[in-house]
Amino acid sequence: MDLFTAESSPLQESRRQWVPPRPRVLHGPFHIVDESPNAATDTVPSSDVHKAFKHLKGRSAVQLLAASSNGASHTNGASSGAATKDSTNGHSKELPSLRIGIVLSGGQAPGGHNVIGGLLDYLLERHPGSQLIGFKNGPGGILTKSFMDITEDIMAEFRNLGGFHIIGSGRDKIEKEKDLEQAASVVKELDLDGLVVCGGDDSNTNAAVLAENFAAKGLKTCVIGVPKTIDGDLKNSQVATSFGFDTACKVYSEQIGNLMMDALSAKKYYHFVRLMGRAASHITLECALQTHPQAAIISEEVHQQGKTLADIVDEIADIIAKRAEEGKNYGIVLIPEGLIEHIPQIGALICELNDLLADVTTDVDSHDAVMTRLSTANLAVFEFLPASTRQQLLLDRDPHGNVQVSRIETEQLLLQLVAVELEKRRKESKFCDNFAGLTHYFGYEGRCSFPTNFDAAYCATLGYAAGALVAGGKTGLMATASSLDKPCAEWKVGGYPLIDMMCIERRRGKDKPVIRKALVELEGPVFTAFKQMRSKWAQEDCFRSPGPIQFSGPNADGANFTLALELNSNQPIQIS
Amino acid sequence: MDLFTAESSPLQESRRQWVPPRPRVLHGPFHIVDESPNAATDTVPSSDVHKAFKHLKGRSAVQLLAASSNGASHTNGASSGAATKDSTNGHSKELPSLRIGIVLSGGQAPGGHNVIGGLLDYLLERHPGSQLIGFKNGPGGILTKSFMDITEDIMAEFRNLGGFHIIGSGRDKIEKEKDLEQAASVVKELDLDGLVVCGGDDSNTNAAVLAENFAAKGLKTCVIGVPKTIDGDLKNSQVATSFGFDTACKVYSEQIGNLMMDALSAKKYYHFVRLMGRAASHITLECALQTHPQAAIISEEVHQQGKTLADIVDEIADIIAKRAEEGKNYGIVLIPEGLIEHIPQIGALICELNDLLADVTTDVDSHDAVMTRLSTANLAVFEFLPASTRQQLLLDRDPHGNVQVSRIETEQLLLQLVAVELEKRRKESKFCDNFAGLTHYFGYEGRCSFPTNFDAAYCATLGYAAGALVAGGKTGLMATASSLDKPCAEWKVGGYPLIDMMCIERRRGKDKPVIRKALVELEGPVFTAFKQMRSKWAQEDCFRSPGPIQFSGPNADGANFTLALELNSNQPIQIS
After folding, report:
1. Which of A267, A507, B107, B225 has the most C-beta neighbours closer than 10 Å?
2. Which residues of A323-357 are buried (b: 16+ CB within 10 A; e: fewer)?
3. Do residues A295 and A313 touch, judged by C-beta distance below 8 A?
């Protein structure tokens, strides 16, 4: 027995063997049934969206219904699109072999391997002789024709495990006419019946562009999207959640819970924790519900209320001062990484800095040169920032000369400003206790962890559904699983038109149809739940520690609070 | 059902109900038997140690043996010390009630609550009517007579959970004559039969001082130590491991494993990870065996080989350059937080800086002033450091004016220097690939996590043993559990004299008897195992991901590789 040289841990070995539960409908024969055309869509696609997607417009959402169920009467077999195959699927009736490509796009999210596994299961079970082609290192792999065959032998190494490394991921977009031509030529050459794209809002917008393009060219290749992002900001009425969000939040909540117990034991530190989530604060919000911190800043609220950095600093300092009166000089503050961009005054400052820095004729590298050129309002904001942040704003620029906002360590920034504010109060005899802070950034650790049982089952279902949708000749849909508040066996499975999630946004000076990012809804059930509790959590020690993700036993199968609240469930969600 | 307002997570609830396994000998009646006096000790205590501990010298290690076992013939009941009670313990024979105090000392380590729980179990089961007194916030709570009664009602909230917050911890030492008098007066006033001290090497040295002092004063209060430190540097021939090490390493290894899968998926970053362990690198070494990184720096090796910072930077750069030749521009580098102090040239620099900075008559706050005063050799080292580190060395000083070495972000330092070195090689056309690095510090997250089943059982056993040793009138011992490579039922339980772990070290200009810190042994089985594998791990992608700690199922009960290798076990350790 070799103790430590084996390349897999016992848990890796054991997870590979695990078989995720599967919705009942996917166990037997099923039909793909169009939803009634007047089913609600998330946006009323403007004529501009329809103009950009002439071949996708008018397509329905679909559901997979057991072939023996009542829904069978609505069976819509070879519906619109390039479909030429019978859309009834079943073990009893073997269907022609298929060739499907899959690509992973953007940042890693736990569960990606299971999407591929679910898709492979579909092909192996229902279309013997099929071929699953994995494009390597993201959409760029389509353009360069870099791919590999994914067989069960290969897949077995990755089932229920984290990471995207079976084929890798990448951030290329296929948007330029030249690239669209190349992609069309590659899928034609590879004779692909379908292409499955796992990605966030941008990548799924791109999937719709590909679907439209292939359809316009008369290619048979259907394009199906799968909602992936740990940030949780790709969701809508028909897409309950993006995969990876559940796992990532649990990884971060484990660490935050540990820090809380440390804060409570040592009684001398405030921990300022930055969490992932640049556009939306869903992760911070879920982690707050999981752990009950003293403060959790939600970017969307800051933006809506037009809060200044000084407002936020003041609020945190107030909490710390009030706790100090009760002898409690410790606690936890959660901060979404995107916060700084959502503070209107900082946004204005960055905007002016970008203009100044882009003006290559002036030397504004030096602190003083910038100070003399900034407008009075922005100068006041700039001077409020700690020296280290001012330096980051001036020196860290991207290739276009823009300030690299994502490089700013917001947790450091806030900690420094809070310390300054408390020092000020001390001089005014309004605060007379110790304040000591530590900072943390929980980010990369959550992107490739072992998926929770929920994410593992959800992803396998989405992958399986994607295969079924391709076989049914459906294109331009996102694979969906719904009724997620019920046990997995009862989940509904289907597809939802990508263009029904779209709206027109101005990007780089052009109107563009894009999938809308789902931000935290300030009137929604999740933020409302947080708002009801936060002043209690600020003052009292209600620390909650979720502990490490469990894969077996009674604590294995629960899903996150965000999902439960959004699905109106008053019970914790259990998939089995 | 309230989804998120309950202050406990389901896993917290569930862990509280769990009953850790217990060595068989603790289930029935047992004797406390002296080991033969010629049993090996870890040091041959010098006459100086014996001079300092006149009342403790000559005491034997002891074992708890089942009353019915053969060992009974060696029974040594009321042996040396203040013991006046029968040392045979059993359910069948109720013993007088006891009053025992417990104190947690130093940094948090997972399992502390279970030591207290084990001690309480001992008292409840074998000495009805006893009282367990928890001193609050560390040894200082003894001096200020700040304490609470720990009843089963209170204890039940904390069993198998992380943190030290049931009574808190602290870093005070009871060393001055005045404090020793005060401690003696308090334990006398509280009529304590025993005082149990959970701590690291320093705190257990302090426990021996207290034991000696109480014995010298003729007090009945026995003092028993319990080995606590996540750093793993309190161990010897009779103490296999300190509690908390197993859990902390697993928490860090989970995160490192996640980063590895991210590195392997994104294929564009080197992650430089700083881990806890200032004096010893056991954590870094165990995490390396668990995860197979590209490089793991072991302070003890750096020190022994007299490596310079440039040597270390060169070695890392060599690995990166060699991997780049195979197109692999990603990986993981593990760094113990104490590294910088173990590099001889940096030690010399810091020494001179401390002298310079202590000289208040000279203004050496400015960079230039320091540059002109440093010796040539130290100036060269200083100039090699990145600007941010130079600034940290000059500005961050402790109240004594010393450089705050622990504030230096060694992972940042190494990343910056490696980037500079690779840039240099690029100019010499020896490196022509991309290099991008990210830094992480995994520290506080590991100190208060839910203890593993191993740590939970080990701690409960040590607490139970501590109670038995007090009841047996033993003092100046550390509670021990051995044969840890066997299932918990077969563990041996006993006590080992604290002074047998001691040697004389020069501290602050004085010879002082102290418990020797256990550093990584460069000829030992753990480092040897790492040495055999590291070049393979550097070059190939052998990434291993241990995943989150499991509490039930087949992956729940294993202990760490360090322990297995040191116990010569060729099987993974399973406690059940």
Report:
1. B225
2. bbeeebbbbbbbbbbbbbbbbebbeebbebbbebb
3. no
> Does residue B440 share a domain with residue B313?
yes
* Whether B263 contacts B292, CB under 8 Å: no
* CB atoms inside a 10 Å sphere around CB B191: 11
- A-proximal residues of B, 537-556, CB under 8 Å: 542-555
Verify that B386 and B477 share a domain, yes or no.
no
At B216 the three-state DSSP class reads helix
Sign of CA dihedral B293, B294, B300, B301: positive
pLDDT category, B550, cuts 50, 70, 90? very high
Residue showing tokens 């649990």: A250
Domain count, chain A: 2
- Boundaries of domain holding B330: 247-446+524-551
B chain contacts of residue A552, beta-carbon cutoff 8 Å: 550, 552-553
Annotated catalytic residue, options A34, A231, A246, A485? A231
Exposure string over B448-463, b if 16+ CB within 10 A, otherwise e:
bbbbbbbbbbbbbbbb
* pLDDT tens-digit series, residues B507-533: 878 899 999 999 999 999 999 999 999
CB of B164 within 8 Å of any CB in chain A? Answer: yes
User: At a CB cut-off of 8 Å and minimum separation 6, what does B162 contact?
Assistant: A258, A261, A545, B108, B110, B113, B247, B448, B449, B450, B451
Least confident of A77-86, B365-374, B454-463: A77-86
pLDDT band at B353 (very low <50, low <70, confident <90, very high): confident
- Mean pLDDT for B489-501 is 97
Of A452, A495, A456, the closest CA to residue A116 belongs to A456
Distance from CA of B442 to the nearest CA of A (A): 9
Task: Please state, as a whole number, how many other Cβ atoms lie within 10 Å of the Cβ of residue B338.
Answer: 23
* Any A CB within 8 A of B15 CB: yes
The ipTM (two decimal places) reads 0.94
Indicate the SS3 state at residue A337: coil
Residues forming beta bridges with residue A62, ordered by sequence position: A34, A495
Provide the token pair at A485. Answer: 């508040």
